[in-house]
């Protein structure tokens, strides 16, 4: 794992945004057939996606799920860039190389940037996306980071689209606010089923699609991570995959739109 402290250059002032149709976007399958079917193939590989924890105790699960989505990229996508400010890193803990290896990651492919604050973390993430040095850029910002708003996320969306880079925003236990992210997810850790011989089972997550700018309806699912094949599998969730009604969503932004 490589750790760097950098002083990024000022970010671009561009704010215009147009969304491509799903037909023209490269899609990254999650791997779980039922989930990919609902997503019509996967998530945009050259877009921004954000992940929130279901509650404070699930902040690590949200971060882990984002990292595992980055591992779904082909290894030819070179490095994964993880960006956080010092306060955010201390709040959610440090990345652990041995743990990452157990999840199927190669710690040598991970570049970690510790920015002094959220403003510089945003700039570092945008610069990392534009550089195309990493196949995926993950920005972690815990709590109520006011600088992560519609304007700043719009810049990240544009950068990801132009560079063809997967951009993932980990918000932990923050309250969802308006953003330009293509998808918004809520993540909760879930109990795993033991393997034969009472061996600990695969990491398991309850995921809830809160919003999709392509018009896909919200839904909930349970998935397990196969670290050997670096793929998610479907797992039963109260009888299988379920759909959430817009009126019952936990996303404040959607509730405002439906009010």
From TrEMBL:
InterPro entries reported in the protein's UniProt record: ImuA (IPR017026), P-loop_NTPase (IPR027417)
Superkingdom of the source species: Bacteria
Name of the protein this chain belongs to: Protein ImuA
